[in-house]
Amino acid sequence: MTFPRIPGHEVAATIVEANKALPHLAVGLTVALSPYMNCERCAACLRGRPNACQFNQTLGVQRDGALTEFIVVPPKNIYPANLSVKELCIVEPLTVGFHAVARGRITADDTVAIFGCGGVGLGAVAASGFRGARTIGVDVDDEKLRIARAAGATHTIHTGKEPLHERLLEFTNGRGPDVVIEAIGLPQTFRSAVEEVAFSGRVVYIGYAKEPVTYETRLFVQKELDILGSRNALADDFLAVIRMLEEHRFPVDGAVSSIITLDEAPQALRAWSDDPSRVKKIMVRLD
Ligand SMILES: NC(=O)c1ccc[n+]([C@@H]2O[C@H](COP(=O)([O-])OP(=O)(O)OC[C@H]3O[C@@H](n4cnc5c(N)ncnc54)[C@H](O)[C@@H]3O)[C@@H](O)[C@H]2O)c1
Ligand SMILES: [Zn+2]
Q1: Is the pTM of this model over 0.85?
Q2: pLDDT for 280
Q3: What pLDDT is recorded for position 137?
Q4: Can you tell me the distance from the alpha carbon of 138 to that of 136, in angstroms, rounded to the nearest whole number?
Q5: Which residues are paired to 228 by β-bridges?
Q6: CB of 231 closer than 6 A to ligand 1?
Q7: Whose CA is nearest to atom 10 of ligand 1?
Q8: Residue 256 has pLDDT above 90, yes or no
Q9: Would you say 96 and 238 are in contact if contact means Cβ atoms under 8 Å apart?
Q10: What is residue 255's predicted lDDT score, i.e. its pLDDT?
């Protein structure tokens, strides 16, 4: 991203001015926003996959975001829902994991291991559980694993204390998980996804590895793997997250650690930067 930039891409908003031709988006409605803007001309857009737009601009990243009193967005980016402001704010972060689960074609017949139960991995845990799959959350932090269980993980593995390989074999009758979702972004967990997944399984990468990764590519072929990238989210993912939240199937309170005013934001951001592990999400109210 480039600076200066107004942040804000996980957004709840109230409609104050509407297009009369779109009665389902009326003044006064409280809604969630999709922060993704696509070009409508690149190969991904033409294939109906605007989430992977070559020229994607996300609010708060490549263009100014929503941490401001008023914002104008196209109707297709607006999602009305029967949810509280706090719930609406966590729709977008959960969609990224929901998209990865859709990419992995996960069903109730699958056992799924999710590497990393941070902000993004937690959405994948919730989506996998929501689809009825046996869901194994993997992390190095007890608190993250506790929230993963509350969000739908049937099993958890703390790889700082337990051997990953042996535990995964134990949970899967010696076969390995049908699907591994990587939501950390480290070379070793990128490799481990391919090593641990079952023969003929699927690997979905959400994490951005910050350096090149070396692979034993023989495993791609021998296991006949589907190796998939997963970026941002599609409209269907927003609708699926909203459905889950409306059914109260996600521990919303555990995901947001504080609610502050805009005036309190500089101090709160500094405290977050000084001690990231103590903060989950900080919600900034502008009303
Ligand atoms: N594809 C996309 O559209 C997209 C969108 C947002 C973020 N991302 C990427 O997803 C990744 C995760 O993002 P996040 O916001 O959830 O980060 P995060 O820091 O909140 O979560 C990472 C989690 O991984 C755990 N972890 C770290 N090292 C580990 C290890 N060796 N073994 C097991 N667990 C480990 C941490 O304890 C933490 O819970 C990042 O690489 C980020 O860049 C991708
Ligand atoms: Zn495009």
Answers
A1: yes
A2: 83
A3: 98
A4: 6
A5: 204
A6: yes
A7: 207
A8: no
A9: no
A10: 82
